[in-house]
Design a protein that fits this description.
By secondary structure, the chain is α/β, with parallel strands linked by helices. The chain folds into 4 domains: 148 residues, Alpha-D-Glucose-1,6-Bisphosphate, subunit A, domain 3 (Alpha-D-Glucose-1,6-Bisphosphate, Chain A, domain 3); 100 residues, Alpha-D-Glucose-1,6-Bisphosphate, subunit A, domain 3 (Alpha-D-Glucose-1,6-Bisphosphate, Chain A, domain 3), CATH 3.40.120; 105 residues, Alpha-D-Glucose-1,6-Bisphosphate, Chain A, domain 3, CATH 3.40.120; 83 residues, Alpha-D-phosphohexomutase, C-terminal domain (TATA-Binding Protein), CATH 3.30.310.50. It has 15 helices and 23 strands.
Amino acid sequence: MGDLAKIFKAYDVRGVVPDELDETIAEAVGAAFVEVTGAASVVVAHDMRESSVPLSAAFVRGARSRRADVVHAGLGSTDLLYYASGSLGLPGVMFTASHNPARYNGMKMCRAGAVPIGGETGLTAIRDRAAELAGAAGGASEPAGALIEKDLLPGYAHHLRTLVDLSGIRPLKVVVDAGNGMAGHTVPAVFDGLPIELTPLYFELDGTFPNHEANPLEPRNLVDLQRAVTETGADLGLAFDGDADRCWVVDERGASVSPSAITALVAVRELAKHPGATVIHNLITSRGVPEIVTEHGGVPVRTRVGHSFIKAEMARTGAVFGGEHSAHYYFRDFWFADSGMLAAMHVLAALGEQRRPLSEVVAAYSRYHASGELNSAVADQGAAFAEVRRAFEGRGETDELDGLTVTAPGWWFNLRASNTEPLIRLNAEAADEGTMKAIADEVLAIVRRVSE
């Protein structure tokens, strides 16, 4: 049995199966989840990994042993689980390791209404109680709660289509790369009957990921999609991660579309429905996002990087929408939860409601030149930050909301430490490419000199 402190992260559970996460632990977590949340009923779904079926079954046994009824949705994406939690008013657990390699699995937990459970909101208590139960012989008793198997995919697809109406768009040719992940299960249901000619890539559910990692943030994982878009003359391409809560967009030329541009595009659409609303963006999205939100009458709010901060700010402000550089998109109309599919539908609607190609549509939302995330392995991170701070003193405004951000007329950069690795991450942006590269090169030279 593994060490629960190692697999319980700040916002979810994730570990190698069976060395770190096995059925004994999953069963104990199921019992602990019910005890800590006080749930009378729980909804559970799982992804396509081979270990997801036995692990989720063990969790169900543990939950039922504490007299909770379990609605088992079977195969689903993470946003399908959020739909289930929101529409049924139940706490929920999704078994997935998202884009991690095949040997991993994990759990994403939420309270009723898709409210996330993190370390400070119950996850630590669940971990500690599960450790007690897993270490005790006969910790879980015989199931007493009911088991209800329910297919929630039709309801999920219908709900999304009530939020974004695609029935009247012009016919579109769309390539979707599911990466052998859960989009291969959900996309056909959502697109059924719409004026979309679908070219599917890797829709076969396979948790060994035989074609490429289900992580669209890595450019190498977009190559097949980009080729298919140009070869088929498609209007756009969509790439989803393993549990389909993130979506990456490729235009008709096969070029990647920045998640910042998608954030701005969706924000404008949501503000048209909700004038004056708040829109959340994290601090390394393009400065074009708050500019465009303001120009369309909205109120931009800047947050730290990470879904917990986005969701907390959305709940606090009642924001209509939130977007991240990592291609996570959050919607008030979707219980403040993230949905890659819903973001994709907004892009399809924006494209299909007029005649221009996607490259022209998103050009209006792409104002600056960005470096992308540049990582450096640094042993003494404190010294690196100190040197960069000293080098840029007096050259711009600084803040430390998340790492170090320096902002000057025409450019900005953010330098922050990874939460999981000995890495420093740099993002830089400027009005012109030359300035962006010069700033990024200067910061990297300092960081890497310190690390030598």
